[in-house]
Amino acid sequence: MSHEDFPTDDPAVVTCGLPYANGDLHIGHLRTYVGGDVYSRALERLGQQTAFVSGSDMHGTPVAVNAEQAGVSPESFALDWHEQYAATFPKFNVEFDNYGHTHDETNTAVTQQLVSDLESAGHVYEKEIMVAYDPVDDQYLPDRYVEGTCPYCGAHARGDECDEGCQRHLEPGEVEDPESTITGNPAEYRERTHKFFAVSEFSEYLSGFLDRLEGTSNARNQPREWIEQGLQDWCITRDMDWGIDYPGENPQDLVLYVWVDAPIEYISSTKQYTERVGADAFDWEAAWKEGASDDHPEGGEIVHVIGRDIIQHHTIFWPAMLEATDHTEPRAVMASGFVTLGGKGFSTSRDRAVWADEYLDEGFHPDPLRYYLATNGGFQQDVDFSWEKFRDRVNTELVGTVGNFLYRSLLFAHRNYDAAPIADATTDEVAERIDEAIADVEAAVNDYSVRALGDAVTNLARFGNEYIQRSEPWNLVDDDPEEAARVIHDCVAIAKAIAVLFEPIAPEKCERLWNQLGEDGSVHDVTVEAAREEPAGDLAEPTELFEKIEDDRVEELNEKLEARVAEAEAGGEGDGDTTDDDTTDDDADDTMTDDDSTDIDPLSDDRISFDQFQDLDIRIGRIEEAEGIEGADDLLKLRVDLGAETRTIVAGLKQLHDVDDLPGTKVVVLANMEKAELFGVESNGMVLAAGEEADLLTTYEDAGPGTKVK
Where ATP is bound, by residue (predicted)? Predict the structure, then answer.
């Protein structure tokens, strides 16, 4: 791994968190897969050798429980879902170089070898622990077979995670007041011998790893608190039949915990890709093993694209396993926010979702959804989907900006000229603007921002619309045909650049555009350098790339959704439930998670008067300085310019924001908040933020420090 700007000389591997083979995909699940596909395509546009891999997560207790309820074997149950996912992803132009699963021969062998290496290196030990046991049904209860109370926050907890409270990973024996999820019987704890990975030995390494880690700031900041609190060693075996057997002597017939073999599938899937295409095309060992290649002694560039609910697994457990076995540590972790639906969480039990197949069955093309998911907010922020918002983004940006420029330019060129090149060369102004767009794409890749990739293209299209509008080639055709040809040549050059640079987000539409431009080969095979090349092909008669969504169509879709939800609730399917165990496993995948937990809090019935609101002195501020407070894990000391004065404000942003990025940020401040002393620092005001991720409130335009909010 180089940490140089992309593209580098080392092979890159982009992975997506494994979908848990336990239920249908909805569009919320697609966010990280689309994000990973966009990012891997963008790397390839820069000329980076890249493998894009993932696979289905087949193991764990939810699969075993649901398979038993369905009257089939866990393997058969999981394989059915795996095959469905493998067929669904390409429908959304998510094209993995390899898509495997955790139960295949490759992952079984690679997992058992890696665990054997951990044990040989002295990082695995045995320990007697208390395991939940159902005395009536006479069976041990691993993970989701047991539920009870979280010992840390008192919330309801399922097996190995406090999914309704503090989100903490729970070891076997930690859940209080345990009950069997199979029978409902009270459970008891019995002593049992299990295998542990000594994660605590890697605390110093992991602190340094987080300092080096690239990607989204939440992936770097959240794990620091767990390290500071003291890492606990990790139980890596379970008492059940479904899973990969622990290697070597195994008298108790233990299987490996699902979170051991799940990330190892990243390696296994890359290995399968190499076996298919050959090491000359892509060498999996050069990417994953330090010292395996003389040309790549530090391994390759590993980028994980995940949901924020599995940051802990990818920044603590997984890199410790890799370090202990001389594998390449991740270069970057891109952790996405969740997707909500009209301000509320998806609920599979209430059928409150836009299902992946449903989206396609309604006749929508996959690329507009890819654009919406990739560019609607920063990657680590939550994205809210509604048919109204989707319509507005499609109609305004894809149809009104990108599509409008391409269609009007290419139609005019086709009707007035036989072929490109229309003029001798692109003008300096337009060539420089294309170079700027390419630079924006390169910066977006190195900033791990899929949103900025889309912005680079829409901004170029806006320039194209402005350029053709002020140049008015339709008025030049008769009076100055040479100047008209020059203008249209410039517009076709911009269109070609859009085809190249927009391909990661809208691959199918850009291939169609490439063909309309009469270019040779496929747009999928070119690099950003092709955006600088003069247009060279015969122009075909263009068709509009993007289709407008009408208001009555949105009304129809909302009515369908409301009817489905009402029917599900009338049938009692979703009464009172807040989790979706029938389709999700919060411990096994970033996207196949319970989204009900993201429901928006109900609006308060307590009202305040206008006079009471007037008593609030809310001002625009600009953060001038930000630093941590000694002894406080979460708090930052901010110096905030409020126009009339600069104040010290203490804010709980340390784990949720990159401290170095905060200076210069405009924020909204409650200026007449009572003063308070926190860890010896007097706080004189309150910075306002939204949600658990502390999304800072800011301004849309240019209101300066001291401006009053009213």
Answer: 348
List the domains of the chain with CATH numbers.
1-123+198-349+587-597 (3.40.50.620), 381-532 (1.10.730.10), 610-696 (2.40.50.140)
Known binding residues are 150, 153, 162, 166, 348
List pLDDT tens digits, range 666-703: 999 999 988 888 878 889 999 999 876 788 998 877 78
Peptide bond preceding 74: is omega within 30 degrees of 0, i.e. cis? Answer: no
* 611 Cβ neighbours under 8 A, 6+ residues apart: none
Give the pLDDT confidence of 456-478 residue by residue, as tens digits. Answer: 999 999 999 999 999 999 999 88
Find the Cα–Cα–Cα–Cα dihedral 653, 659, 661, 665, rounded to 10°. Answer: 50
Q: What are φ and ψ of residue 116, in 5° steps?
A: -60, -40
Contact between 340 and 346 (Cβ < 8 Å):
yes
How distant is the alpha carbon of residue 536 from its chain centre? 38
391, 509, 530, 541 from 512: Cα distances, Å: 22, 5, 16, 12
Closest CA to 328 of 282, 256, 267, 259: 267
Q: How far apart are CA 667 and CA 182, in angstroms?
A: 50
Cα separation, 368 vs 505, in Å, equals 9
Residues whose CB is less than 8 angstroms from the CB of residue 663 and which lie 6 or more positions away in sequence, other chains included: 623, 624, 625, 626
The token duo for 416 is 């007035």
Residues listed for the chain: 710
Residue 136 pLDDT exceeds 60: yes
The dihedrals phi and psi of 55, each to the nearest 5 degrees, come to 180, 170
Q: Which has the closest alpha carbon to 20: 103, 118, 139, 114? A: 103
Annotated binding-site members for Zn(2+): 150, 153, 162, 166
Distances (CA, A) of 274 to 36, 97, 301, 585: 20, 10, 16, 30
Phi then psi for 112, rounded to 5 degrees?
A: -65, -35
Per residue in 276-313, pLDDT (tens digit) is: 999 999 999 999 998 777 778 789 999 999 999 899 99
CA dihedral 5, 6, 12, 16 (to 10 degrees): 100
Q: Which residue positions form the known binding site for ATP?
A: 348
Q: Output the six-digit token pair for 75.
A: 């393997």
CA angle 406–466–444, rounded 5-degree value: 70
Q: Which helix (H) or strand (E) holds 190?
A: strand 188-197
> How far apart, in whole angstroms, are the C-alpha atoms of residue 328 and residue 319?
8
d(CA 530, CA 152): 56
CA distance 81 to 425: 53
Per DSSP, 394 falls in state I
Q: Give the pairing type, strands 255-256 and 237-238.
A: antiparallel
DSSP-based three-state secondary structure for 247: coil
